[in-house]
Each structure stands twice: as C-alpha cells, then as structure tokens.
Specification:
40% strand; 6-stranded mixed sheet; 129 residues; Nuclear Transport Factor 2, Chain: A; alpha+beta
Amino acid sequence: MPERCVCHNEVARLHRFFQEWFAGRLDEDEFGTCELALAPGFVIVTPAGELVEREQILTAVRNHRGGEPAGFEIKTVPRSCKRVRGLHLSTYEEHQQGTRSTVRVSTAVIDDEMVWHKVHETWLTTAEL
C-alpha cells in the first residue's frame, strides 16, 4: 500500500464527513465542511458516466443528510498520489457499507490548499439496488 500523503488524509477527512452526514450524526450547521471542500467549478464524473456540477452535488449531499442507516460506513483505501504543479492527483478506493454495499475507484484533483476540483469514479463492484 502506498504511503499516506497529505491528499490521502484529505480524502479520508472529507469521506468521514460524508459518512457522518449521511448517517445523520452531524448538525445542519456543519454542512460548511462540504461547501468549503469543493472549489467553484467542481465537477464529478459518476460511475455511470454522468457529469455532475458543484451545485447539484451540494444539493444532493445536503438533501441526503440522515438518508443512510446509523451503521453506514465509508472507508477509503489509498492507491496512489502524484503531485503535479500544485495539484495532487489522488487515486483511492471507496468502500461503502449501508443500505447497499459498493466499491469504486476514484481519482480526485485536489490543490495544495486541499480544495477539490474534480473527481472521476468507476465501479469496482456494481451497486446492489
């Protein structure tokens, strides 16, 4: 396993927020954690190939507060990180356990201030609906 770099720590930190938010263990006033993490112009390419922009993501995350069971968990596993001209290209696995179990591999573009600019996700397992 690769050594954890600063961007992998950031990946783990933001996914801990998602875990706690989706399980309903965070107060609404803590949503700023997500808003500050995603840069203006942030986009994500979902495992289904859909391009989703920042405002859509923020709305979806905000609306899903408490939408998962109390035991919901997200675990991230670092794969690689490369720093190029002030940007970190972080690749990691994301394992989710809850209403459904999924595993995806993601690559994120994160700047030196640990602000996210883009994520591209690919299923390693398909969602069990």
